Amino acid sequence: MNFIKNVLATFVGIILFCMMSFFLLLIIGVVASAGSSSSGKSTKSNSVIKLDLENVSNDYGGSVYIEDFDYKETNNDGLINVLQAIDYAKTDDKIKGISIENNATSLGSTQRKAIVEKLAEFKKTGKFVVAYADYYSQGEYYLASVADTVYMNPMGSIDFKGLASEVLYMKDLQEKTGIHMEVIRHGKYKSAVEPFLQQTMSDENREQLTVLLNSIWESYVGDISKNRKISVESLNTIATNLDARNANLALQNKLIDKIAYLDQYQNGIKKALDIKYDDDINEIEILDYIKDVNLNIKKVSAKDQIAVIFAQGEIQGGEGNVNTIGEGSINRALKEARKNDKIKAVVLRVNSPGGSALTSDIIWREIELTKKVKPVIVSMGDVAASGGYYIACNANKIFAEPGTITGSIGVFGMVPNFKKVADKFGVNAEAVKTHENATGYSVFEEMSPKYKQTLTESIEIIYDTFISRVAAGRKMDKAKVDEMAQGRVWTGTMAKQLGLVDELGSLDDAIAYAAKLVKTDDYKVSLYPEYEVELADLFRKFLGMSVSSVKEDAIKSEIGTENYELLQRMNYLKQSKGVQAMMPYHLNIK
């Protein structure tokens, strides 16, 4: 019997070893091919860049270091790479123009603004920018508005109707299910947890959302007014009356220049390129163009460097990755930047709704240490709120876009409670303990006054620390910070008026200011952080990727994308550890 068991054990071991080896070789192959591959496409003479941004979502594509292989892989698919490529194309004799064709992207408003500004610079060289769509969302139309000529399908329309935000409230749902979220917060505007506390929107939240939407809209239509030479008043009338709901109305109101089918649009490009209608357009997609000219974009011979460190995503702690902020990768980048003599200044690009208050403070400390050696300039992206503002507030200077969502200076703590569910199904939790507070908090019992007092004390300490950090960093009176804080969200324009930011400007503006501050005009931009991963992590990710993807697609298909996003939001809040400095990032502006 033992012999059979040993044989079976050996057989199973061999199978597992073969499976592990197969997946390991597959991972190594993927990594190796990623490092050695090229786009396979080169830029031909008389070419047009197709600005397809569907696969561009982050400011920074990320650089990953796999210690087991001593291997580094950099993804050049971030917004920063797109902007650098468009800038390079201005003087590339092979590029004659840029085509924005049926573009679909998840980029935020300030990210689109950065592209619009870079396209406007591109046009000044005498090269053309044209746009075509079967249908324009408000965001995609904003991007297209900078084009010399805007085309639209005869059956198309523009979703030009103003901004709105819908928030789902779940207090009654909690009552019906018996699952209750225990919430303690500081900040009357801290609406990240409001849906769990009440069934209707508070006056404070309605006030801040109204002001926020109006401010973002003003920036949005202001740029379109400039690009299309249409008054803001006329644009507001068009939005109110839905006067871009079909192609004829859009043309009549000068939101577009031509009604045409795709082949007619392409013929227009061929005419601009001075080629025959039967000839093919030498078209290269933006990500392929980035790969083709990447080495040329880098200014290798520069004497100095400006380090741009990207802090993007929720602040969760740990190493972090391209979608989340962790003190591991961010602080390592800050240390490297201040120890590298070639790096003269640091620009911290923040695009985050916040998250862990502890991690925010750890990163804040590293910025304090870096400032003693080199200047730290902050550039805010779409969102730099709550914990995102925490890690920005002590910079030497802060730049924000007019539409940046920032502020939200407030904290909260939240834990789930299943007491009613337990009672309903006859579950009773009993605890044995050596000390009065040994059990801490049980999800099966009502929150004790002692635990609530302890959690409240922690919230108040962190809130007080938060506003103290802001007061010191912004050289403001603490009482004044407290008055404008309370978890309220501001746009970049409003934040500048309040003194929470210094200047309205782009990432390029922040980099230029940093260079001027350290008196250098011969510099290159070095991108950070580098995320470190181990083979075991890569292996687990590889194995779980397909299962997770199938599961996600199945759930989305069953309950819909919006409900799936709500489910993710609830899961995040339930799993969050420690006190959170988080803005209401579930805010969905349409």
TrEMBL record:
<dbReference type="Pfam" id="PF01343">
    <property type="entry name" value="Peptidase_S49"/>
</dbReference>
<protein>
    <submittedName>
        <fullName>Protease-4</fullName>
    </submittedName>
</protein>
<feature type="active site" description="Proton donor/acceptor">
    <location>
        <position position="190"/>
    </location>
</feature>
<dbReference type="InterPro" id="IPR004635">
    <property type="entry name" value="Pept_S49_SppA"/>
</dbReference>
<keyword id="KW-0645">Protease</keyword>
<dbReference type="InterPro" id="IPR029045">
    <property type="entry name" value="ClpP/crotonase-like_dom_sf"/>
</dbReference>
<comment type="similarity">
    <text>Belongs to the peptidase S49 family.</text>
</comment>
<keyword id="KW-1133">Transmembrane helix</keyword>
<dbReference type="InterPro" id="IPR047272">
    <property type="entry name" value="S49_SppA_C"/>
</dbReference>
<keyword id="KW-0378">Hydrolase</keyword>
<dbReference type="GO" id="GO:0016020">
    <property type="term" value="C:membrane"/>
</dbReference>
<feature type="active site" description="Nucleophile">
    <location>
        <position position="386"/>
    </location>
</feature>
<keyword id="KW-0812">Transmembrane</keyword>
<feature type="transmembrane region" description="Helical">
    <location>
        <begin position="7"/>
        <end position="32"/>
    </location>
</feature>
<dbReference type="GO" id="GO:0006465">
    <property type="term" value="P:signal peptide processing"/>
</dbReference>
<dbReference type="InterPro" id="IPR004634">
    <property type="entry name" value="Pept_S49_pIV"/>
</dbReference>
<feature type="domain" description="Peptidase S49">
    <location>
        <begin position="370"/>
        <end position="519"/>
    </location>
</feature>
<dbReference type="InterPro" id="IPR047217">
    <property type="entry name" value="S49_SppA_67K_type_N"/>
</dbReference>
<keyword id="KW-0720">Serine protease</keyword>
<dbReference type="GO" id="GO:0008236">
    <property type="term" value="F:serine-type peptidase activity"/>
</dbReference>
<feature type="domain" description="Peptidase S49">
    <location>
        <begin position="122"/>
        <end position="275"/>
    </location>
</feature>
<dbReference type="InterPro" id="IPR002142">
    <property type="entry name" value="Peptidase_S49"/>
</dbReference>
<keyword id="KW-0472">Membrane</keyword>
